[in-house]
Amino acid sequence: MNYLAHLYLAGPAAADRVGGLMGDFVRGLLPGVLPADLAAGVALHRAIDAWADTHPAFQASRARVSTARRRVAGIMVDLFYDHFLAHGWQRHHDLPLITFTALAYAETAARAEALPERLAQQLPNMRQYDWLASYADPANIGYALDRMAQRLRQPNPLVGSGEELLRDYTGFAADFAVFLPDAVRFAEEHRRTRPA
After folding, report:
1. How large is the average pLDDT for residues 103-117?
2. Counting Cβ atoms within 10 Å, is residue 173 exposed (0-12), middle (13-18) or buried (19+)?
3. How far apart are CA 70 and CA 62, in angstroms?
4. How far, rounded to the nearest angstrom, does the alpha carbon of residue 111 sit from its chain's CA centroid?
5. Angstrom distance (rounded) from CA 156 to CA 128
6. How confident is the model at residue 44 (pLDDT cuts 50, 70, 90)?
7. pLDDT grade, residue 164 (50/70/90)?
């Protein structure tokens, strides 16, 4: 799952959403230096990632990725699923997408003292250009994957990988339609059963 899906699956608590956004930037044991509420959000992010990797629909999407890009298929599918979530947002959430993303950026900025440095550096651009809402456009998924390719230290096949979303758009969309309701149930159960 990528940023938008983690924010969506985090549920109604601001700290879970901020922790969900922080999840890809935090390493090591929890809570570490994090406040307990944000650590719980990061733990939810990690649980969702581990669960998603084993879901049959997510695995089916990974298998749709070309052999040449198979080792980065998980990264690609994470972003593809954010596209489908953003594209069909009105079916999944009561708030308009731009209202939801503005709220998420504001909640994250309000916890600036706890943000990992890399997220703190990225947040102004995320907010200014509304990366999360921009995912509704497939072209922006390709752009995001190309940017990601530049940030990775090792050579990788991510450049141009956005074209694979369009190559099997219907198949990825069908996988996502199966995956999302199960992801919502998993996240709700995780939040309900975690220690207070």
Report:
1. 96
2. middle
3. 7
4. 19
5. 28
6. very high
7. very high
Tokens coding 150 = 């530049």
Secondary structure (H, E, C), the chain: CCHHHHHHHCCCCHHHHHHHHHHHHCCCCCCCCCCHHHHHHHHHHHHHHHHHHHCHHHHHHHHHCCHHHHHHHHHHHHHHHHHHHHHCHHHCCCCCHHHHHHHHHHHHHHCHHHCCHHHHHHHHHHHHCCHHHHCCCHHHHHHHHHHHHHHCCCCCCCCCCCHHHHHCHHHHHHHHHHHHHHHHHHHHHHHHHCCC
Task: For residue 127, give the amino acid letter.
Answer: R
How far is 144 from 148, CA to CA, in rounded Å? Answer: 6
